[in-house]
Specification:
Blueprint (H helix, E strand, L loop, with lengths): L1 H8 L2 E2 L14 H10 L9 E4 L5 E3 L2 H6 L5 E3 L2 H14 L5 E5 L6 H12 L6 E5 L5 E2 L1 H5 L6 E5 L3 E2 L14 E4 L1 H7 L8 E4 L6
Parallel strand pairs: 1-2, 2-5, 5-6, 6-8, 7-9, 8-10, 10-11
Antiparallel strand pairs: 3-4
Helix pairs in contact: 4-5
């Protein structure tokens, strides 16, 4: 039974109030620890929505299961980088990422590690919601020639103007600010659909 359920359970990891197979914010520490303890599950991940990594770890597992005031400790930057590198490097079948800024410090250093870990993946969609730190996008986007959809809700995503007409040739859908559209649309395929996004903190 486990062999049948786990590929479904770990296919789409997200922060939502939807189906029970999805994860809430307080579940991310436990989720990441599960993936570290059982790396064979990472191959099933097709999409991920959430922070780059958890910034807290829950000490009491029983409290975590009850979602009730669990005792936590804050992770160091080195611990977060190790989590990101370990998990995203092994996520060989991931195709969709939607990162949400958690507002913690040193997020830029963590973003660089995530970018490197995802550079050889065949992503079809990248979405970024951020309002606090600068996120250089060009290195990740250049490494994704098969990208179909790009969604940016951020004024702090930088480097889009560094992309040229040889990048993102298969891009079909673009949602971002007017300034970002102006940087990306020239040289893109004529079939590209684009829309404006508000770029403010939720």
């Amino acid at each position: 039974m486990r062999k049948m359920v786990e590929p479904i359970l770990y296919r789409d990891l997200c922060h939502t109030n939807g189906p029970v197979t999805c994860y809430y914010w307080c579940d991310y520490p436990r989720l990441f620890m599960t993936l570290i303890a059982r790396p064979e599950l990472i191959q099933y991940v097709h999409s991920y929505t959430g922070p780059l990594t958890p910034y807290l770890m829950i000490k009491d597992e029983e409290q975590a299961l009850r979602h009730s005031g669990a005792d936590t400790r804050q992770l160091t930057l080195a611990e977060r980088i190790e989590l990101a590198t370990t998990i995203f490097t092994q996520a060989v079948n991931i195709r969709d990422v939607h990162f949400i800024d958690d507002g913690t410090s040193h997020t830029n250093d963590l973003w660089q590690s995530v970018t490197q870990a995802l550079s050889d993946k065949k992503l079809k969609r990248i979405a970024l919601v951020t309002w606090s730190y600068r996120f250089p996008m060009a290195p990740l986007l250049r490494a994704q020639p098969g990208l179909k959809r790009l969604e940016i809700s951020s004024l702090t995503a930088t480097g889009l103007e560094d992309l040229d007409g040889t990048d993102l040739l298969l891009l079909e859908n673009l949602e971002c600010s007017a300034v970002q559209v102006a940087s990306l649309v020239p040289g893109r395929p004529g079939r590209l659909n684009f829309g404006m996004r508000w770029t403010r903190a939720p």
